[in-house]
Amino acid sequence: QSALTQPASVSGSPGQSITISCTGTSSDVGSYNLVSWYQQHPGKAPKLMIYEVSKRPSGVSNRFSGSKSGNTASLTISGLQAEDEADYYCCSYAGSSTFEVFGGGTKLTVL
Amino acid sequence: EVQLVQSGAEVKKPGESLRISCKGSGYSFTSYWISWVRQMPGKGLEWMGRIDPSDSYTNYSPSFQGHVTISADKSISTAYLQWSSLKASDTAMYYCARGHYGDWGYWGQGTLVTVSS
Fold first, then answer.
1. DSSP state of B9
2. Which residues of A touch B99 (CB under 8 A)?
3. Touching check for A54 and chain B: CB below 8 Å?
4. Digit-coded pLDDT (tens) for A89-104
5. Is B75 helix (H, G, I), strand (E, B) or coil?
6. Which candidate in A54, A87, A97, A100 is best for mutational testing of the B interface (most B CBs within 10 A)?
7. For A28-49, how does the pLDDT look when each residue is reduced to its tens digit (9 = 90+)?
8. 3-class SS at B10?
9. How far is Cα B8 from Cα B113, in angstroms, rounded to an integer?
10. Distance (Å, rounded) from C-alpha B72 to C-alpha B93?
11. How far, CA to CA in Å, does B99 sit from each of A29, A35, B102?
12. Which residues, other chains included, contact A31 with Cβ-Cβ below 8 Å and sequence gap of 6+?
């Protein structure tokens, strides 16, 4: 069982927007603005899409955005494209005993 | 260009030891922590631990503490992940990644470790 809870799957049509939630606790997501999101295509290494809750690395499309409210972080993808179909993982810092924890991952299907 | 290049796939028997590597290039190796991440077949990502190459200080996930050892040789810009006695359940893809608190912007290509009798 993962430390952070994500929906197993989400889907949307091209052009639509979707949001993936990532629920933790007051010991991780709720305590630190150190939530990141990763995209992983089959057989590939993960790619950083969002860090520190809402910051986008250089080169990542502005269709990807992140936010946080309380113990839940969210990744929103607007203007869905076929290439967005992938697995998405959230990650949070969880203090000096546990350090980093991932969510279980969400499979995004573009219909 | 920043690169993390990992060692090749390994096939081992239970009880054997193993060390896999991750060589950084294109940046100051001692300026960024290196983390190791496990992905078991068909499963999600799990953070194992990290090392600060500047002083070899390590942190481990409680789930992996005592089961693996992370080390680094800054003279050759290489981080390592090692096991003293492999189990079948260690079969997985292992990634190294550069960054600090979850901002791992650069990843290695992964090393597939297969443990089977």
1. P
2. 48
3. no
4. 999 999 999 899 999 9
5. helix
6. A100
7. 999 999 999 999 999 999 999 9
8. strand
9. 9
10. 20
11. 19, 13, 7
12. A95
